[in-house]
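4.2 Preliminary Data

To establish feasibility before requesting continued support, the project team ran the inverse folding procedure on a target of 96 residues. The structure was first converted into the token representation described in Section 3, and no sequence information of any kind was made available to the design step. The complete token record follows.
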């Protein structure tokens, strides 16, 4: 089941990538090279959550679903891990 959601999310993100240079809304970059991208699409996410994608420094990708409050972006990753990230670390996406 997890593999299905992973494939569906990556397919959706890949389809959207062809439509524009920058398809994510905001991005956070860690000093070690890891990146979290927040997308405007809901994809397989429910209850108003939208797609997030974590790319580790080694290139491993883990999609998830995010929701946000005034101060925090909460993510449930498809590998069942969770994150609560301050909104201040995310920057608006810039065209390439």
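Position-by-position output of the design step:
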């Amino acid at each position: 089941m997890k593999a299905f959601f992973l494939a569906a999310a990556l397919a959706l993100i890949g389809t959207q990538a062809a439509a524009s240079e920058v398809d994510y809304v905001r991005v956070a970059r860690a000093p070690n090279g890891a990146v979290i991208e927040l997308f405007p699409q809901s994809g397989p996410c429910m209850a108003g959550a939208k797609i997030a994608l974590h790319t580790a420094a080694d290139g491993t990708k883990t999609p998830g679903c995010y929701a946000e409050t005034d101060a925090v972006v909460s993510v449930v990753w498809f590998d069942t891990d969770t994150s609560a990230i301050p909104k201040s670390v995310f920057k608006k996406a810039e065209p390439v």
